[in-house]
Design goal:
heterodimer; A: about 350 residues; six-stranded mixed β-sheet; 14 strands; about 30% helix; elongated; disordered C terminus; B: about 350 residues; mainly alpha; two-stranded antiparallel ribbon; globular
Chain lengths: ~350, ~350
């Protein structure tokens, strides 16, 4: 596959008078292949928007290499910008212009025919509100207008920062279908979002970042699978007896309410066979599989902890790749060390998180 | 070019520009109404008297101009007599500058009143240009319009200079249009309820020169307003800078220079002396001391003389430096938030 967007070792530090230097992006890597919908995920303040802004020439990177559609950016961004549609962060527009005027001014600046304005207004559902001033738009309508502006150019690469922000459920669904449709027509979509259920449905691949560094990347199903422990949840009439039978067979198991959990079980049939051999009949067997949200919280270290209010900078910091790896330093004193990203066991899944 | 046209269109589409134009028209109307209210249509006898006085003054000016032309190239002292015309510009004695309207009282006249009113109106337009240009940029930053545009046009200097040119073009066009309307209305009013005056070639030349000099101010203030708003990313930054400059420099520093005569040169750090020098042809910052001028055999006040060229040079350099700084900052600025 062709790489449409590649970021390597991106670093950006902001200097503020009050807080001193703040590292927003710290050696980030990202690869997006042509025609895929790539989710760009991370906790608040992890550097997602800064990365997208750097990619689009809005902020100057301190280090790293970025290419978009085969051109190094930001230096050669003008050569490819007509093939990129983008919205970054909050969808702000000049309030006294109408939606149509807003799009018209953008279209005129690059010579896009006016007919295309009608097309994108139709696509994002603003056809009948186009003559209304933007200040009268709801957040969701502004978001739609932002998407419309990104679509004006018929882009090959669509970069969307929180495109579903403020949208109603129907709008979220429309947005998902729109992106899926675009991807089906060969448009590459790089989307940053916190709606992980949406991302799981929409994206082919994801990159998860924490504190300016990549934590994990790959196909969505692979990322989820990498965090799957193989735990099996079993429902039997007598759980305690079943635990005993499994222990005799050399399997570790523990009880959770009326279920028993058999950790790291690669062969679920062995469980049914063992229990059946002792006349304990299994009425339910589920191989636990985390969803993207669970994986995200696990990978970024942002899962809620009882009795503690996690702060925005409390997510995990992954070591800089390359020898020798620096020792891990917890971000907050007392915080648990980071999980082993390759084979980290998950906690027992909450009801509704399992997949059979 | 395409972006420039879009920016001009954006400038005209914005409501603030329309509001400022209407406000300027309102003030313009008020000036004209007040002028008309304090005027009357001169009677035939008033005009006859004024014309007789003007003819007498023209005859005197003709004699004086001839004397001036004869003496201007001679030294200060001729046969023991002081030569007042030595080195003098004899155009000031041009009989064509004598206007019948000079001898009418309580009458608004075009030739008499248009020049000072144009100063007032031009200053108003210049301030309107500063605020409008500042708002054009200041509203773009927080509304996200600038960020959106940069997503489409990553060449920042193209964006900067398109917006700059759009501001200057529209403000200049507005200034020229409003000035033309103002002068036309003044001509109508003086024709109906006052006296038009004598349109001599000399008057016309002086008036056109004044208008051209005045036209520079809206352009410079537009550039200054644009640059400060670009630096501060808010309209309020330009307005605050304007208010701060007026209080700290034009009021505070001028007061200091007047209270402490030894610090008279502080006035040279203000912009107003250079504006006056540009408009009037000269401005003199006086110290409390005098020196003996051997050519005029007289004590002359010491100080700093600013001529037309000095005035416009400082104004242009100041504006260019500010615009250059704004361009540099815009080119390198991280747009990390709107």
């Amino acid at each position: 596959m062709t790489v449409v967007c590649e970021i390597s070792g991106l670093r950006k530090e902001f200097r503020t008078l009050r807080r001193g230097p703040v590292v927003a992006v710290d050696g980030l890597d990202l690869v997006v292949q042509r025609g895929e919908v790539h989710g760009f995920l991370g906790p608040n303040g992890c550097g997602k928007t800064t990365t997208l802004r750097a990619l689009l020439g809005l902020v100057r990177a301190d280090a790293g290499m970025m290419t978009v559609l085969g051109q190094q950016v930001p230096h050669r961004l003008p050569q490819v910008v007509d093939r990129i549609g983008a919205i970054v962060e909050a969808p702000n527009f000049f309030g006294n212009f109408t939606g149509r005027q807003t799009l018209d001014l953008l279209a005129r600046s690059v010579g896009i025919p006016r007919q295309r304005i009608d097309e994108v207004l139709e696509i994002v559902g603003l056809r009948d509100r186009a003559a209304q001033r933007v200040k009268a738009y709801s957040l969701g309508m502004r978001q739609r207008l932002a998407v419309a502006s990104a679509l004006l150019k018929k882009p090959e690469l669509l970069i969307l920062d929180e495109p579903a922000n403020g949208l109603d459920p129907a709008g979220i669904r429309e947005m998902r279908e729109l992106m899926q449709g675009l991807a089906a027509n060969g448009v590459t979509v790089l989307v940053s979002s916190h709606l992980l259920a949406e991302v799981e449905q929409l994206c082919d691949t994801v990159t998860i970042v924490s504190r300016g560094r990549r934590v994990h990347t790959g196909k969505v199903k692979d990322v989820i699978a990498s965090q799957s422990t193989g735990d099996v949840r079993v429902l039997v009439p007598d759980p305690d007896a079943a635990i005993g039978v499994l222990a005799e067979a050399g399997l570790e198991a523990h009880r959770v309410n009326e279920h028993i959990i058999v950790p790291r079980m690669n062969d679920p049939a062995f469980v049914t066979r063992t229990l059946g051999g002792s006349d304990i009949w299994v009425s339910e067997l589920v191989q636990l599989r985390p969803d993207l949200e669970t994986v995200f919280l696990q990978l970024t270290g942002t899962a809620p902890v009882d009795g503690r209010y996690p702060q925005v900078d409390d997510s995990i910091r992954v070591p800089v790749p390359g020898p020798p790896p620096p020792p891990y330093a917890p971000a907050v004193p007392g915080q648990a060390p980071p999980p082993d990203l390759s084979v980290q066991p998950l906690p027992p899944a909450a009801p509704g998180q399992e997949n059979t | 070019m395409r972006l420039l046209l879009v920016e001009v269109r954006r400038f005209f589409t914005r409501r603030f520009g329309l509001v400022m134009s209407l406000a300027t028209v309102g003030v313009m109307g008020a000036i004209l109404v007040i002028s008309m209210a304090n005027s009357h249509k001169p009677t035939d006898s008033e005009i006859a008297y004024a014309e007789a006085e003007a003819n007498r003054a023209r005859a005197d000016a003709e004699v004086e101009q001839a004397e001036c032309l004869r003496m201007t190239d001679l030294p200060r002292e001729v046969q023991g007599e002081y030569n007042y015309f030595s080195g003098e510009d004899c155009d000031v004695y041009d009989p064509g500058l004598v206007d019948t309207a000079d001898y009418l009282s309580g009458v608004i006249t075009f030739t008499q009143d248009a020049p000072p009113l144009m100063y007032a109106f031009g200053s108003l337009i210049a301030l309107a240009g500063l605020v409008t240009a500042a708002s054009f940029i200041g509203a773009e930053w927080p509304s996200g319009g600038m960020t959106n545009l940069m997503l489409w046009k990553p060449r920042r200097m193209e964006v900067f200079f398109s917006k700059l040119a759009a501001s200057v073009i529209t403000v200049t066009a507005g200034a020229v249009g409003l000035s033309a309307i103002f002068l036309f209305l003044l001509w109508v009013i003086t024709s109906v309820g006052g006296y038009v005056g004598d349109f001599s070639g000399a008057w016309l030349a002086n008036f056109v020169e004044q208008c051209l000099r005045m036209a520079v101010l809206p352009i410079l203030l537009t550039l200054i307003g644009f640059a400060i708003a670009m630096l501060g990313r808010r309209t309020a930054a330009a307005l605050g800078a304007l208010a701060g400059y007026a209080v700290v420099f034009e009021f505070g520093m001028r007061l200091l220079a007047q209270l402490l005569p030894g610090l008279y040169y502080l006035e040279a750090a203000l912009l107003s002396p250079y504006v006056i020098a540009w408009l009037d042809g000269e401005y003199f910052i006086r110290s409390s001391e005098y020196y003996y001028d051997s050519s005029s055999y007289d004590d002359m006040p010491a100080g700093i003389n600013i001529d037309t060229l000095g005035g416009i040079s400082v104004l242009v350099l100041f504006t260019a430096a500010l615009v250059g700084l704004a361009a540099l900052v815009f080119k390198r600025r991280d747009v990390a938030s709107n």
